[in-house]
Amino acid sequence: MAARARWAIAALAAIGWAGGAAADYDVRVELKNLSEQVKNDWPVILRAYTVLGRNLPPGSVNPDGFHVYDPSGAEVPHMLEKLPPYDQPGNDELVFVIPRIEPGKVLSYRVTNTAERSQKRAAIDVVGSPHNLIRNGGFEEPDGDRPAHFSAPAKRDATVKHGGRCALMLTADGQRLSARYAAPVPLHQGSWYYFGAWSKTDNVSRFGYQAGPAAHFEIPGFAPEDGSKRVGTRHGSVVSQCSTRDWVKTTFEYFGHTDWGMDIYAAQAIRGGETTVEFVLDQRKHYYMAAGRTRGTWWLDDVVFMPQPEVNVRFDLAAEALMKDGVFLFTRPASMFMGRLKDENNHNDPQEWCAFPYAHERLTKLDQFALKGQRLSFCLGLYHTRPIEQAAIRLAGGGLLGPGGAKLPVEVIEYCPGYVGPNRYRYMHLLNAEGPADPLQPKGERGVRYFFLTFRVPGDAAPGRYTGSVELTLANQHTIPLTLRVQDLTQPVLKDIYVGIIFQASSPRFDDEALEVYSRSGFTCLTRFGGFLNYKQDQAGKWQVDLEKLGETMMWLKKYGLSAVSVFSDFDLGPRWNGGYMLRRVRPAEFEQAGLAWGERLKLAEAAYKAQIQGIEAARREHPEWPAFIYMTWDEPSLRGGVNGKPDPAMAWVNQAAPDALTTLDVQFDPLAVCAKWYSMPAFDNPADWAGPELYRWVKAQGKDFGYCGQPASAEWSRYQGGMLMITSGARYMHGWHLQNANSQVAYDAKTKRLLRAISMIAWAQGLDDLKCHRLLATEIAGAANSADPRKRAAAASAEAYLRKVLAVFNGDHKYRWPIEPYLGLAANWGCDQFYDDWQEQMARHAAAIRGVQWIEPQK
Questions:
Q1: Pick from 241, 220, 215, 244: which is nearest to 230 by CA?
Q2: What is the CATH number of the domain that holds 200?
Q3: In a shared domain, residues 557 and 679
């Protein structure tokens, strides 16, 4: 096991825990009985990272090293139930039993994780506990061929099970089947409840918008946001199941956050009385299914529905013990969930909250690796519990010193006021990167602030360590060493994968400032909603695209590192806005005649429209130096018609005029079956919660590529979409919806007259870096395949084994949730927020090993 830091030692001395040795992780857990009943032998079920904290360093948690101490200081038995992915102990469930607790009483337990193996690991029967409100939750007791206490058509299956001898099975083909627990389940208003069920599926139809709810749970009484009783939708809390998946445990999740900003894997009853528990298989015959392969089967086992105490983990005590003068400095990934404000439109997370820091995030130094040509950011967090009259930050000397005296300046320094306090704000103000530091006046007695220092490594930079220090001046000056380890590897430029965000109309302005801010995230593409092309009249007075102006625009975009541009508003063929700018210019007068359906009217403009496409393509062939050009010609067609119109053969016009042209549309699940044949890479549209491996295979079988209309929300959602999703799905295209709109990534600051970016734009940048680093490694692996050098082949085999391990967990399949999430959860759901940083570095290390380049390690 990796060497493990001892962050909590100072905190232990201040808190004065009873019993036990000094530990790597050491926290107090307060448990309150909200019920009106005395609870005896009451199992408590906690997700491990919700006890230890977010952002757990890789390798720092010992799965065999948990220890639980009761209020008297005596160590008590506990169980650790492992949940997939099985190499992430932060995701596992820690279970122990309270012998007795009175109504309204609070008991304080202590939980540690150390290098010492626990002698108190024990089997705890949670399924068979009298506190489990689901009798026969292991489905061992029969009633004929079905499990006792459950209605038909549920059956017992002894051939497939997770634990014990049997599992519950539902199987259907084009049907909706339901297995209900026969008895009403008592609820106590205001009490918390745990729900967990092990689930396995075979060919269950995909869920999502227009696709259906698939295999899901219905448990009324816990207020899903959409007002329905179905808890399995993206608005609810128990993850639905689909596809063909091995055993996975589904639980209540995302019912809010604690005061410290920690996830809660329990649901609070909004009413008392009784509720019901129902397992529903809605098996639909979808177009991606092969003939004769439409039956789906769902197995459930070891179901637990149990009241729980209210949990308060005292992370504040550990952090406060490490504070000096009311200040705690920390660091964390930009892709970590920092909190939420009301302006973020996220159905999964309706409340405002802030992720306060943890003792193990304490900042002593900043150190990262970098590739040549890479832009990357360092995070410095400031938590304070006293008013700060003035703050200032600067990079000493204005830059980092490297080999041969080379100086690497800081490109930008940005300041985010954060998610708590009177001036909370999620956008980052630009600070002076050179010369005197800009003074800041954080408001409020308590705050969590962020500073980001961004560097751009030149493509010809000498490999080696670039060192310096960050000076943060509060009441006292804090000096933090900073090291950037530039490796002898160059970040590739991607010209065949197109990832970006939609520039919507005039928000933000489509100008140099916006593109400069946008380019800091390393996007390879942008999508333009709003005017992009210029037009001029020929001698006959007919309108045509101004190709000279187009060339100027394309080279302007190239200046900001873009490999492609996707254009919608000019090429739109849908009826919503009466067609796009180009169609309105070139269509004949009879186009406006009354009485014709939209498709009939379009036919009148076909020749003129195709002529403009051919002209653009001819110019593009003459200028291979231009970024790639992507034609987006429709947005959200519907099989029922309506404002956006129905699928129409005009969708094929661009590829009929230019067979090699890149074409796309935003398309949802139902119309994809019709529209895919007319486009080279249709984009799965928002909400693309229905997307998964079956759809990827189906589109590829049509001879097409595909893309995504993503949601540029925040944190790991952004990083995942920009990198891992592209890698695991095989998508070639992504545009997030939109740059400045709901979930805005940028905001215009009227006071400074500057365009500011949110922290999530750094997360997008890191996702693009993941994508580029994966390309670097894939290229090295491919090059080693035919090498005569056994060292290269062995290094490549090791790299491939590593990627297989990662991509067995991240496989392009998803939860029924939007923004899109991997079906085994985000890394944040395992407490492993550093996963992506570690993954990116491991890929670069493997690339260096194949190439035979010496890796520059951190200094000890």
A1: 220
A2: 2.60.120.260
A3: yes
The tokens for 178 are 């339901």
Is the bond preceding residue 142 a cis peptide, omega within 30 degrees?
A: no
Indicate if the pLDDT at residue 3 is higher than 50.
no
What residue type is 130 in one-letter code?
P
**Beta strand segments in 82-166, E:** 93-101, 106-113, 142-143, 146-147, 155-157
Among the listed residues 273, 288, 188, 303, the one whose alpha carbon sits nearest the alpha carbon of residue 242: 288
> Cis omega (within 30 of 0) on the bond before 508?
yes
Indicate whether 791 belongs to any domain.
no
> What does 463-477 look like in DSSP terms, one character per residue?
SEEEEEEEEEESSSE
Q: Are residues 158 and 259 located together in one domain of the fold? A: yes
User: Are 73 and 156 within one domain?
Assistant: no
Same-domain check for residues 486 and 503: no
Tokens of 323: 């504070």
Per-residue model confidence (pLDDT) at position 227: 45
Give the per-residue SS3 of 549-576: HHHHHHHHHHHCCCCEEEECCCCCCCCC
Residues 166 and 118 in one domain: no
* Position 166 in a domain: yes
Torsion of CA 329, 331, 337, 342, to 10 degrees: 40
473 plus 518 within the same structural domain? no
Q: Which backbone phi and psi does 671 adopt, to 5 degrees? A: -70, -15
Q: What is the pTM of this model?
A: 0.95
Average pLDDT, the chain: 93
DSSP type of residue 694: H
Domain CATH for 351:
2.60.40.3880
Residues 617 and 762 in one domain: yes
- Give dist(CA 572, CA 635) in Å, integer: 8
Q: Is the peptide bond before 257 cis (omega within 30 degrees of 0)?
A: no
Evaluate whether residue 567 is within a structural domain.
yes
Residue whose pair of structure tokens reads 């014709």 in the numeric block: 596
Q: In whole angstroms, what is the distance from residue 298 CA to residue 172 CA? A: 9
For residues 336 and 715, is the Cβ–Cβ distance under 8 A?
Answer: yes
Range of the domain at 254: 142-311
726 and 699 share a domain? yes
Q: What is the pLDDT of residue 226?
A: 45
d(CA 221, CA 226): 13
CATH number at residue 524: 3.20.20
Beta strand 498-504 pairing with 733-736: parallel
Expressed in angstroms, the distance from the first to the final Cα of the chain is 18
3-class SS of residue 620 = helix
In 3-state terms, what secondary structure has residue 787?
A: coil
23 within 8 A of 65, measured Cβ to Cβ: no
pLDDT digits (tens, 9 = 90+) for 261-308: 999 999 988 889 999 999 999 999 999 999 999 999 999 999 999 999
State mean pLDDT over 177-205: 96
